[in-house]
Amino acid sequence: MSKKLITNLNEMETSKPFISAQYSEALYKNATHILGFCFDGTTSFRPGARFGPDAIRDASFGLETYSPYLQKDLEDYSIVDCGNLPIYPSKWKLTNDYFHGITKDLKLDQDKIKFLTLGGEHSISYGPMRLYLENFSELVIIHLDAHTDFRDGYLGEKFSHASIMKRIWDHMTPKNELIQYGIRSGPREEFEFMQQNNTQAQSLEELLSRIDQLSPKRAIYLTLDLDFFDPAFLPGTGTPEAGGESFHSFIKIMKVLSKKNLVGADLVELAPTIDPTGNSSAFASKVAREILLTLQP
Ligand code: MN
Ligand code: MN
Fold first, then answer.
1. pLDDT at residue 292, as a whole number
2. Are 270 and 281 a contacting pair, CB within 8 Å?
3. Residues with CB under 5 A from ligand 1 (ion)
4. Helices 279-294 and 247-257: crossing angle, nearest 10°?
């Protein structure tokens, strides 16, 4: 591993690292960093996503490090787990400011620094997506979710989980592109907004072809809300929606993305206590492995 960039991660809460990742108190060049953001303070229906990051790590010990889908092995890459951001209960802004503080001077592209941020509710994706928009002027954001998430604030919270894509849209320019898929719930105006801006892929085939048409060098960020998947597969999430996608659809997306330039991702909305069988955590953990491998060139 190459030289350390930042050593002041000492406020991070340690936890058992994701399988095959080393625990790290620093950020490194040429490495992928796992960060937990254990926040669910604006969750509107069923909280519990704050336990998501550690449940994903715990379940990872039942996983192989090798993915037969992508034919890549976690052990062949520099992947570190920095633990969880310091959490100030119901203080999203303070944790977000902490994230901003440790990442604002990074040169993600030049130094090949990548992040997989584990939520937490979807509002936690704000800091990572802003960071990536600042670092990559032509960033493409792929948003996989059951929900539109385009509300301009929800239940009095401007930075609600139900507003995350609106908050990010505010920072996007005509040079950026947003591609959404899996969306099956939201108010009529938000579906009309997506239609007007041509952000929503209407089928898996359309999504795959839109990704396939991107230049291989163009930076792509993935924000994946686990309610994208059908609740039959993944019931452990705060706002489940019938009619979702399968693991196999997800793998098709990862296979196309792995030929492109995926530079960062977040994985949010696992609420492990809602599914005491542990199956949702095991599912989410396998999804995390595939994302980590897709992030590797
Ligand atoms: Mn959702
Ligand atoms: Mn969402």
1. 98
2. yes
3. 145-147, 225, 227
4. 10
**8 Å CB contact between 258 and 294:** yes
Side-chain-side CA neighbours of 174 within 13 Å: the count stands at 0
Report field, pTM of the whole predicted structure over 0.85: yes
- Using DSSP bridges, classify how beta strands 140-144 and 79-84 pair: parallel, antiparallel or unpaired: unpaired
DSSP-derived 3-state class of residue 5:
strand
Distance CA 114, CA 122 (A): 19
Among all ligands shown, which has an atom nearest to the Cα of 123?
2
Burial tier of 120 (Cβ tally within 10 Å: 0-12, 13-18, 19+): buried
Listed in sequence order, the residues at least 6 apart from 280 whose beta carbon sits closer than 8 Å to its beta carbon are 226, 234, 235, 236, 237, 270, 272, 274
Chain-centre distance for alpha carbon 30: 19
Q: What is the pLDDT of residues 30-55, one digit of tens each?
A: 999 999 999 888 776 788 999 999 99
- Does 99 score more than 60 pLDDT? yes
Instruction: For residue range 150-174, list pLDDT tens digits in order.
Output: 988 787 778 888 889 999 999 999 9
Which residues, 6 or more positions from 194, have their beta carbon under 8 angstroms from its beta carbon? Answer: 148, 150, 180, 183, 200
Collapsing DSSP to helix, strand or coil, 40 comes out as coil
Task: Please tell me the distance between residue 225's alpha carbon and the centre of ligand 2 in angstroms.
Answer: 5
**How far is the centre of ligand 1, averaged over its atoms, from the C-alpha of 293 (Å)?**
24
What is the DSSP secondary structure assignment for residue 154, as one 8-state letter? Answer: B
| Residue corresponding to tokens 């849209």 | 169
Handedness of CA 19, 86, 150, 105 (dihedral sign): negative
Domains, the chain, ranges and CATH?
A: 22-294 (3.40.800.10)
How far is residue 117's CA from residue 266's CA, in Å, rounded to a whole number? 5
